[in-house]
DNA sequence: GATGAATGAGGCTTCATTCAT
DNA sequence: GATGAATGAAGCCTCATTCAT
């Protein structure tokens, strides 16, 4: 995925290594100070390299932003499948997926904020790439929803719309964390705000299924994974 | 509220007039190009004044951002009470308020995006002011919720949390409009995603109340107001 | 002619004044150090203005070069007509024009060098403009030649080619001055190398005409004019 | 001659081989883009070597320019003696030499331009070397002139001055080629502008001599040599 | 000897802000 | 009060040169 950004240095291993220095530094600083107030030199310094080196691995300061946002999305995306490993029951899979998603967002609140704030500064092309990556990630959840519907556990709803509802609520925890943390906890937020959304759409049969799985140490497993 | 920003010029009327030139120009440009890529000169030009004049009515470029964001919130805030005028039934008031809110957000999608993107660039103090303004606006909705609960129409829930759920969904329509517009309409979004959230929390008595008011030309009234 | 270069400042008088500070400074430095080794800051300093100011009167560093070269050509071009004022005899006019040209080139040897050296650094468009200005200047001489031919004083020759021969010899005095000054004087150079070229092309009638005018204090007059 | 530029590598053969890779690459690029806009990396790439290697055979980027200009002059200088081989008549030798010179300049118009444009970027020392090389080359022509004078074929003139006149006209063909090619051909240029200069200085005896040699297929021979 | 990654000085340019008019 | 020219700090980026491998 990072191939989208050209670097002067050819050796892919070195590119990967250097970028794995640069990108976290960039993420940290972009989160802290924003894209425009972060200097390329700042990033170089934080990555313990010279300013000139940056431009051997990235064409632009904008590319650095793209790599940063891309990295975040990519990383987040990997967490959910991990949490679903071995889970087969459709309702439990959905429950697990969305909970994992929410907890990943919580663990990377800075990154969520960054995404909402700085996407504007991307190239049109980069913006498109990022959007399609978002859609891909969403698919991890929407496919769980579809499975539930197909199995008759959930009413027939606009799947992507529901997905966005859940996704956006997870983001909201990060976006409004400055206030939400004073009025609730993550656990409550997830169960009250997020889970209830899809639980209300379960069929009677789905509710039954759901009730059974609640015995399992769901939450703990996901927490550990994150 | 705008008194928070000092200007060299004393005459409050003139200050108001000049700022009413500057702020809309600033909003337009900040929305289009973002805060950092918008030049003070750009704003001056758009407001048909000289660059120097800006600094007689504003201390800083940041102040301009503050005034812009402040203006947006203020404006939005005024819309909701208007829509509630004459509505007395608690359930209908809640329904009306949230619908008005959602439609205002839709009408000012740019502004919503701007708020999420550029708040970071504010002073610590200004950020606090803006947050408290957000809370005030939310109170317009949360007080409706409280009325419903008090009247026994709604279960006892974490009022502010529910408010945020509704508010954030309205924002999400703007934030994710690039995708949502392809998978639903505003009307469907409001009824399916937003209204259902609180409707699911109504007591049986509340549901009854709600069912009755559905006969009224609710949506139309709010639409007109916006 | 300077209208070709856009400036942010509108007032044409101010533009003219500032540019008349900047351009000579640029010429001096470009001549001394070359275009690339001259810093915009150097020019600003030499012109006693701030670095930022330069960009209010010029879009580019390249524009500065264009204005510099343009200014040189323009200035040179004005000298020749002045020297011809009142001279009517075709042969004498030609003689006077070419001598004036040569002396102007001598007086601006640096500028001639600059033109040959740095034209390459111009935009394609600017290069074209400069070329056409060169052709215009040449026309001052070629029209004198044409008059001589028309009057039967000179053989029918390729007028522009002869013009270039004369022009290039004048430039050569500047281009090879490092050596020529050791082996001749400007006066000898002009009479031996330059004048002889067209004198050899005179018709008998032309030679007669020419011989008569040699009584006149030609050289002195042109010298004074330059 | 290239010994003037020190290299880290000792083996002179290797130095020669590497430089014969580097210098043509440098010439090509310097001609095309100019000295300053050509990157050392560009040259290395064009010469199919690494950037670092350049600095083992050259101290400086400036050295590369020196070697390039030096190479050009050296190469050109070798052409003239070749064309004179077997020609003994003084007038014909002069005629042949200058024609050869002009045609070499035509064949290397880029190089001529380069020399005029970028000599400025050389070290003081390098500039001197180049100048003395130019004088050496000129001597190839001036000695022909001297022979003609000594033989009574040509008037007693300032030999070096005449040489420069001829040389500069040959350069002018390259320098003003953008225009001259529209108004004449190389052949006409040589005969009309260049040859006529010295032909006009022949003594009657010289003219006779010259007329005789005109039967010979002069031009063709020189053309072939170039 | 050869490579090419790394360095870091320095250039061009932008733009928030000031200030004389 | 209004103007807009002037300032100068600071940022992005390039590229000659070095040096570890």
Describe this entry's structure for a reader.
The structure is a homotetramer. The first copy, chain A, has a single domain (about 1-225), classed as Tetracycline Repressor, domain 2 (Orthogonal Bundle). Chain A has about 230 residues and is mainly α. In chain A, α7 packs across α8. Chain A has helices spanning about 10-35, 40-45, 50-55, 60-85, 90-105, 110-120, 125-150, 160-175, 175-185, 185-200, 205-215, 220-225. The longest helix of chain A has 27 residues, at about 125-150. The interface between A and B is large, with 36 and 36 residues. Chain A binds a DNA duplex (21 and 21 nucleotides) through α3.
Brief account:
Chain A is an all-alpha fold.
Give the secondary structure arrangement, pairings included:
The structure is a homotetramer of 226-residue chains.
Chain A (H helix, E strand, L loop, with lengths): L11 H22 L6 H7 L4 H7 L3 H24 L5 H18 L1 H10 L5 H27 L8 H17 L1 H7 L2 H14 L4 H10 L4 H8 L1
Helix pairs in contact in A: 1-2, 1-4, 1-6, 2-3, 4-5, 4-7, 5-6, 5-7, 5-8, 5-10, 5-12, 6-8, 7-8, 8-10
Chain A binds a DNA duplex (21 and 21 nucleotides) through α3.
Features:
homotetramer; 226 residues; mainly alpha; Tetracycline Repressor, domain 2; 12 helices; DNA-binding
Our count of domains of chain A comes out at 1
Q: How would you spell out the order of helices and strands of chain A? A: HHHHHHHHHHHH
Let me know the CATH homologous superfamily of chain A: Tetracycline Repressor, domain 2
Helix content of chain A: over 70%
The stretches of 5 or more residues of chain A where confidence is low (pLDDT under 50) are none
At the first level of CATH, the class of chain A is Mainly Alpha
How many beta-strand runs of chain A? 0
CATH fold node name of chain A: Tetracycline Repressor, domain 2
Oligomer: homotetramer
Major protein interface: A-B, 36 and 36 residues
């Amino acid at each position: 995925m990072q191939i989208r950004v050209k670097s002067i240095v050819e050796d892919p291993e070195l590119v990967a290594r250097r970028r794995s220095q640069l990108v976290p530094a960039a993420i940290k600083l972009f989160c802290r100070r924003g894209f425009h107030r972060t200097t390329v030199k700042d990033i170089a310094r934080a990555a313990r390299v010279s300013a000139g080196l940056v431009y051997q691995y990235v064409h632009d300061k904008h590319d650095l932003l793209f790599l940063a946002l891309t990295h975040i999305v990519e990383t987040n995306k990997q967490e959910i499948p991990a949490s679903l490993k071995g889970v087969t029951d459709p309702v439990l899979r959905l429950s697990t997926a969305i909970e994992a998603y929410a907890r990943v967002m919580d663990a990377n609140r800075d990154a969520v904020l960054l995404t909402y704030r700085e996407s504007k500064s991307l190239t049109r092309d980069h913006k498109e790439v990022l959007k399609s990556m978002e859609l891909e990630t969403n698919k991890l959840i929407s496919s769980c929803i579809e499975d539930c519907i197909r199995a008759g556990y959930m009413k027939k709803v606009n799947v992507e719309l529901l997905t966005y509802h859940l996704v956006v609520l997870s983001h909201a925890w990060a976006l409004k964390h400055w206030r939400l943390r004073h009025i609730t906890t993550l656990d409550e937020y997830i169960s009250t705000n997020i889970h209830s959304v899809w639980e209300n759409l379960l069929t009677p049969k789905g509710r039954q299924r759901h009730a059974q799985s609640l015995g399992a140490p769901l939450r703990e497993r996901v927490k550990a994974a994150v």
